[in-house]
Amino acid sequence: MKIAVLGLWHQGVVGAACLADMGYEVVGADPDAERVARLRNSQAPLFEPGLDERLGKGVKSGRLSLLTDYAQAVRDAPFVFVMFDTPVDENDQSDLSEIFRAFEAIASVLEPHAVVLVTAQVPVGTCDKLKDLLRKAAPNVSATIAYMPENLRLGQAIERFMAPALPVIGCDDPATFERLLMVFGPLAPQWHRVSLRTGEMMKHALNAFLGLSICFANELGNICDAVGADGKRVGELLRLEPRVGPKAMLLPGLGFSGGTLARDMQTLRGLGRTFNLNTPLLDGAWKANEEQNRLVVRKLESVNPNLRGARVTVLGLTYKPETSTLRRSAAMEVIADLVGRGAAVSAHDPLADREELKSHAEFTFFEDALAAVEGADALVLMTPWKDYKDLDFAAIKQRMAKPYVLDTAGLWNADQLTALGFMYDDIGRGRRARV
């Protein structure tokens, strides 16, 4: 059975590689010729554990082919999966232009009864617009559209695809649901069918809820810092309460950066404005999150009021551990803020995309973490890579001009670093850096 996958960045590449591994004939398409060439050589656009190997296996077996032409990819395909990673602008508003271009390209060549499944992150109501586009462009085509709320996580995308935590398919046609179960049924014990718009709304609801949880934990942590309580332990113990749950995102730290969570929170806020509905909870969370990442600069200024000329080392640049992308990472936002205040920033990351780094001349990148801390007035951990867990802090202290450490992720042992003579600071644990 042939499946066409449109859009080959993160979720599209993961989906294409996993579907091929499941035994389907998969044709992936993306107009970026350079990206497609790399994919044919088993090189994913960004690092994901095990993904390059799955790509290579699929291509070698002949079950996965990769093209630059959308229309060619969908010919004779009973299933078309639209798996773009929808880009966002600086205000985290979705840019749907590439999705609509893809639909315009495939409308006239779609199989008459194809199922088009959208997993790209789109605002609620988008699938109905895409349905209208197909109806106008190809009146004789009776393809149906469904929506699946994608729930992949960078660094865990393959396992998330193969065992979805949110097995929901949005479609208004029961027969379309049954056809999609032929593909996805083995991946979850039970799939839930909802309406098309309810499926789209599921994605917004999930990410906005996670964003709200993060904002609450961070605000609680800031209060704990002020009163001397341990916000991390509060969050851990709250998870014991059944109404909260063991996996609730309640550990204080940095705010969520732009992208997935921000996109869906902005989408819901935008819908509120469209339908003249107040969204004070979401509006407040948005403001709180913007403020939270400024906490890094505020903490640095508490020990060094004038950052102009200060040398700050940042460890960890990527959006999160186990990935290579810098796209909308909190670390990059913090660095921009520091540079804007006149600080000289050095940085290290074990896996950050070196090509992306070439466009960031505002800081100095080092391939060696020890070299990056030479002469630093402050060391800030942003991305908690496991590589940083057991650094040689005695050597780091010798190299730093001032032994101040800000551990935004709570990765390091505070007592150990304090015993070595560091001024240790973190977020939400009720400690104050000793100056």
Q: What is this structure, in a nutshell?
A:
With 435 residues, the chain is of the alpha/beta class. It has 18 helices and 14 strands.
What is the topological layout?
Elements: E1 2-6, H1 11-21, E2 25-29, H2 33-40, H3 51-61, E3 64-67, H4 70-74, E4 79-82, H5 97-106, E5 115-118, H6 126-137, E6 144-147, H7 157-162, E7 168-170, H8 174-184, E8 192-194, H9 196-227, H10 231-238, H11 260-274, H12 280-292, H13 295-303, E9 311-315, H14 330-340, E10 344-348, H15 354-357, E11 364-365, H16 369-372, E12 378-381, H17 393-399, E13 404-407, H18 414-419, E14 423-426
Parallel strand pairs: 1-2, 1-4, 2-3, 4-5, 5-6, 7-8, 9-10, 9-12, 10-11, 12-13, 13-14
Helix pairs in contact: 1-3, 9-11, 9-12
